[in-house]
Design goal:
Elements (H helix, E strand, L loop, with lengths): L4 E6 L3 H13 L2 E6 L2 H10 L4 E6 L2 E2 L2 E2 L3 H12 L1
Parallel strand pairs: 1-2, 1-3
Antiparallel strand pairs: 4-5
Length: 80
């Protein structure tokens, strides 16, 4: 069995979540979806080294999450 490639997707729009999740699955990836920056940070901290990539929407629920992309990226980089 091949190693699975996990990708964390941060997206609050359910329709876009589904589209991205389906495309990644078809491409052979194992997506995990976080609907908020806070949840993404929690997943990254709880599963250090699991994700090979982070795909993030920078505008969640009609507002930018100012510190979360930086924080998520920093945590992601430190775990790979």
């Amino acid at each position: 069995m091949e190693d699975q490639l996990f990708i964390l997707v941060v997206e609050d729009d359910e329709q876009i979540q589904t589209i991205v999740e389906d495309a990644l699955t078809e491409g052979g990836f194992e997506p995990a979806v976080a609907p908020s920056g806070e949840e993404a940070v929690t997943l990254l901290r709880g599963h250090r080294g699991k994700y090979c990539a982070l795909v993030a929407d920078i505008v969640l629920r009609g507002r930018k999450w100012p510190n979360e992309p930086e924080r998520s990226t920093r945590i992601f980089r430190s775990s790979t």
